[in-house]
Amino acid sequence: MNAKRKxxxxxxxxxxxxxxxxxxxxxxxxxxxxxxxxxxxxxxERYAASxxxxxxxxxxxxxxxxxxxxxxxxxxx
Length: 77
Known about the structure:
Largest sheet: none
Helix content: over 70%
Number of strands: 0
Order of helices and strands: HH
Number of helices: 2
Low-confidence stretches: none
Number of domains: 1
Distance between the termini: 7 Å
Strand content: under 5%
Structural class: mainly alpha
């Protein structure tokens, strides 16, 4: 792969890293809200929705980690 394409991939990788950081921040905020749901509401709809959102954040962040790893593999080869 030529240097120009590697630079472009590095730029994309950096953008993905930035997006991942934003998601992690939002996940942290959601986790804080989840942790502060009163005990008497922990079986409710809000609790379930927050729990699902946290699972989805985990999946999205993990997927971005995979993309970043794949981009690293492209750059290294």
